[in-house]
Specification:
Oligomer: single chain
Organism: Thermithiobacillus plumbiphilus
Protein name: Anti-sigma regulatory factor
Radius of gyration: 14 Å
Distance between the termini: 16 Å
InterPro entries: HATPase_C_sf, HATPase_dom
Shape: globular
Structural class: alpha+beta
Order of helices and strands: EEHHEEHHEE
Largest sheet: 6 strands, antiparallel
Pfam families: HATPase_c_2 (PF13581)
C-alpha cells in the first residue's frame, strides 16, 4: 500500500511556475537519491504536464510534489490538477501523435513512458487530474 507523505503544493498559472515546479521536483528527486538519469526523467515529466496546465487550462491548476513509500520502496509522486476544459477522449489523447493543440502529441504518452506509474482522470468540463510516480 502506497503511503503519501505531506508535500509541496505549487500553483501553476504562468510559464515561470513550470520552472519552479521542475526545480522543486529535481531537488526532491536528488534528496531521495534518484540518479541523474531518473532526475531528468522526472523533471521532463513535470515540465510536460505542468506546461499543459498553462496552455490548455490557461493557468488554472496546481502541482503537488511528495515523497511516497510502499513497504521498503521509496519514490516520488507528482499530482497535477487543473480546472481546464478536460479531455473528451482519453484513449485518443493517450495515443501517440494525437494533439488537441499545435503540439506533437507526444506529451501524455511520452510522460507515461518516463515514469513507473501514470494515472489520469478527465471528462469534458471537469479538468484533468494526473498522478505520476517514480520509484527508487
Amino acid at each position: 500500500m502506497t503511503t503519501s507523505l505531506p508535500g509541496k503544493h505549487i500553483p501553476i498559472q504562468v510559464e515561470t511556475d513550470v520552472i519552479t515546479a521542475r526545480q522543486e521536483g529535481r531537488q526532491m528527486a536528488q534528496k531521495l537519491g534518484f540518479k541523474a538519469v531518473d532526475q531528468a526523467r522526472i523533471t521532463t515529466a513535470i515540465s510536460e504536464l505542468a506546461r499543459n496546465i498553462v496552455v490548455y487550462a490557461h493557468g488554472r491548476g496546481s502541482v503537488l510534489l511528495r515523497e511516497v513509500q510502499d513497504g521498503p520502496r521509496k519514490g516520488i509522486e507528482v499530482q497535477f490538477d487543473d480546472q481546464g476544459p478536460g479531455i473528451e477522449d482519453l484513449d485518443r489523447a493517450m495515443g501517440q501523435g494525437y494533439s488537441s493543440g499545435k503540439g506533437l502529441g507526444a506529451g501524455l504518452p511520452g510522460t507515461k513512458r518516463l515514469m513507473d506509474e501514470f494515472e489520469i482522470r478527465s471528462a469534458p468540463g471537469e479538468g484533468v487530474h494526473i498522478t505520476i510516480r517514480k520509484w527508487l
